[in-house]
Amino acid sequence: MTGEQTAEWAERAVREAEAEFASGTVTEAGTAPEPGASPSREEQVLERIERARRRRPKIKETQITLAHGAGGKATQTLVEALFLEAFRNPALESLDDGALLELGSARLALTTDSYVVSPLFFPGGDIGDLAVNGTVNDLAMCGARPLHLSAGFILEEGFPVADLRRIAASMAAAASRAGVAVVTGDTKVVERGKADGCYINTAGVGLLERPVTLGAAQVRPGDAILVSGPIGEHGVTIMLARGELEIEADLASDTAPLIGPAAALLDALPAGVRLLRDATRGGVATILNEVARAAGAGVMVDEAAVPVRSEVTGACELLGIDPLYVACEGRFVAVVDGDHAEHALKTLQADPLGEGAAVIGHVQADPPGLVLARTAFGGTRVIDTLVGDPLPRIC
Predict the structure, then answer these.
(1) In terms of Cα–Cα distance, which of 332, 331, 322, 333 is closest to 391?
(2) What is the pTM of this model?
């Protein structure tokens, strides 16, 4: 969501809240406004937003749109109102990057993902290494050591064999770097025009070797929030690689396996890591909103502390996009015990994939369920979950 969209939504929330207050409407807590009291503008906005978020998710659209795959509000609603309702079970309930399963004495993590990126080849990578890295990263964010992958290919009639060979070689190299093996798979071919060359689905299984429990439920006020490096490089690279914009920038995708820095952080802080989440669709902003909502806490981000390369900032400013919503494929968000934030930061920075890590904010008690950013001008703004589909087909 752009700043303009956020402002418009906030203004609407204020108007609605003012109308309710003026009419003496009873609040969610069941109490009427104190006689003569007048809620501040900020209180009106936050209360209105919180009430909207407490409503049960409901799909209003009658057809699937691109926004349903963008990782923002529409995706969240689709998953919770349709898929979670259809398949509800304890392993699925947390809606984390992977399911945690127990088989005898072994604890496993299982994840799956599909890749429909366009273009298939881009600076810094291609759909093949993206599929491997994305899946092993989901396992690493669960605290697991990735072991095995499956690979399913949906190919369009007429797709060049040379391109498929290149993609397979890229996947093999990425799997080797990550220390995993592709052990099973499937291939389907559809008629010309029924796909965009090549789609890939991967599933992965990993072993949980540490006695850790990660997730938003572990987050508490006082915790620190870190990112493992500069954000937004993958999404902007993909956007520029399409050639639809007359913008040139020296950028490459950040796609990479995050097993090393994630494991280092878990080893350095055995009891201090609350959550790990790779910042893919919806970007860092969407992760922070998921954390705030699930933990029932507030999140405060220092905009000046968020690492963003100047090339990404420049492209985002030209397009009216907030870098916090742009996808990464080699960066993750970590929430750690606030007392160990400095140790966590040094641990990440010691890894080549975490050299640009930074502490970007903290968790606080209020306002519950909301993410706020402290701006360079000294004020604050609401960072909501992504609305719409500003960057389609980025993974």
Answers:
(1) 322
(2) 0.83
